[in-house]
Amino acid sequence: MRHVPIKCLLVGICLVLCSLAEAISASDPLFLFDAPPFGENAAASGEATLAAWRSLPQDVKPYTMLRLPFVPRTTGPENEFLDTVLSVLQKESVPVFLTAGVGAGANLYPVSTVTQFLKKYSTIKGAYVEGLTFNQYYEFAGGNRLGEPPEVRWLISFIEEIAKARRFAAVALDELHWPRIMSNAWCAPLYDTIKKHRSRVLPLNLQRGHQNIARMSALMGLWLEGAAEDWGVSLSSDWAREAGFLRIGILGRADKRQFPSAYLCKAMVLAGAMTGATVYHFREPRDLWYEEDATMRRQRWESLLHPTLSALVKEGQIVDQDAVRKKAKIAYRLAPSRTAKEFHTNLTDIDGVYDEGRMIHGAYGMERSGTIPELIPNTGRNYWIPIFSAHAEEESLASFAGVFGPGDLPTVEAWRESLSTYYSPDEQGTAFVTTIGTHSFILHTRENDRERQTFRLPDAAAPVTAIRAERGPDGVTVSWPFREEDLDFRVYRRAGTETQFSLISENIDVHRFLDSAAPVDRDVTYRVSARTNEKAPYAGTIDYGSYRALSLTLSRHGEEVTLPLRRQSAASIPINEAPPRADKAIHAYSEREEAARKEIFKRVDEWEAAFVAEGLGEVADLYASNYEDAQGWGFQYALRAYQWFFDRYGHLYMDRQIREWNFSDLAGKGEVRVLLYVRFHGLAETDATGRYADIPAHFPRATTGEVWLTFTNTQGPWRIKHTNPALPNLNDILSFSTGPGDRVGAGPDLPRR
Asked: 192 with 160: CB under 8 angstroms?
């Protein structure tokens, strides 16, 4: 176990011993929690961070460090501010990570500044940086080292100095920047530096945006090919807001964080555990134990995240490299790339948003790429396919039955057929189900949908049943039947209004337990689990937010016994694992309204198909000839805006969801107003200079993404007569191609007359 720093007295002098264990491992993971946000007063900020550390639950504290918030650089006051904070934390040897940068350019500390802090404060165990980009592809005749982007040069220097100081360098990247580093010729020196200092570099998947599965697979590959000894996930419940979720089942954009739960954080943790991640970084303080709002703290930390992290350690849920190599039958190897176009030969397989994503679709069942960011593969049939770098040595790939690269399997169907020769699991249901190491993982695959999903495990550890509870003079006796294959038992209790069960005894080698500390003034409920070789099939359904890691040898809780206050004995009953949901209210529409709804739904489907196919004529057919937007622009303006987007961008897709119907003008004018959440997305291969690759764009750019559409059928099929705000809007579209000195920006395109 990792040791927390301790103080000792030696010859009258108090020495701080920084005895952080060098190794992070599956049995000794690192939990990196964001400290409370800093205020304006440095001393008060230091005390708030210290108070958070002191109140951290003891079962996770030995594995924990705190990441300090980033202090923006100006003329140097970050030194003074952080000096004050760190002086407070140094007194109690609170292990922290210094945030050296968020983004690029002015949001990065000079490496010399980071080095000064490391030398001065032994309480700093590592430094953290996130948000660097590596999508530059630039031909420079003077050689790679002269033409390296500044991000590459800075990160190389940063890693070398951190390693020299024997601390950890945590690097969290989003988008496709890890695969870019592993493929881009400009990044070869950076890759070599990461590998050279692999015991000190902690690559993290910054879980943001659409390419989570590709990043997870790439970091698995870095680890398996020996370029990293540990890797991890950097996660936040704010992912849902960034993904465009307003509520479960409702897409949209909002400034406020409205999504109702941190369930998805548990999915992120378990996805990391099943793939070998040993570092877990939580970026959202509102998810943690020091959150002041008691309701939010109970919903997120106490009920969800704390039990998940405790089980991660206590039950050994993180798989080791041997288990991953045994489970992963095939690997994917990136091709080297010097240009954006060359990198897309990789994306043809590994990413379904910026390119075809043949492997992503074939292996994981990804459906409508880009509409819903994929955190969880839609099937566990093929486990995860690690992505190896272009620099990987052949020996690191020797254990795989198959190794593929760009172009080896030219279609999604070819991927499916090939994978079926390597993987042939039993029928497991519609949920994500995989068994690896000592656990089976069951995850609901829909990130924003309450679809009921099925699962089946043919050989699960059989639960303890027929449990009895009897009240006596010395307490409550809990008993259960004998089974040949049981090794020992654990007993859990929940009393009164408590929401969580507590482990009250373990390593029991008989079939009864006397709970002498049972409360005498409340109902009590008991559960019993067994370490057992007894097996039984386990099947059922799961709803949104249900993510489980089941031990192969420690039985799940299948029954529980509740002993009411005035009862002397009780028998167990099955646990209801799928509580009923309230049915949605069904709105009643008239026959004419329902007919209009069906036709307009069909037209919106046609709109999406026409946009994805870049069919200008088909898009034109969706607009009435007398169309006018809120700024007074008409039919030809709308077509020219679409044409410009089609000329500039590829890999198009459309997010959309109808919010509201207004039929008040249906009878009189033959018009229907529809409130539509919509985003049209596209990708440019490069920016205007040709240097920066894969530039995403979207419209409309209004905060909510909601547009009122007026449909009319006076010209035949239902067509769009009016949009408010304007859809499309050239100002929104052109804003992705302009520089900071240009006058065009997102917003209403007002006529200049």
From this structure: no
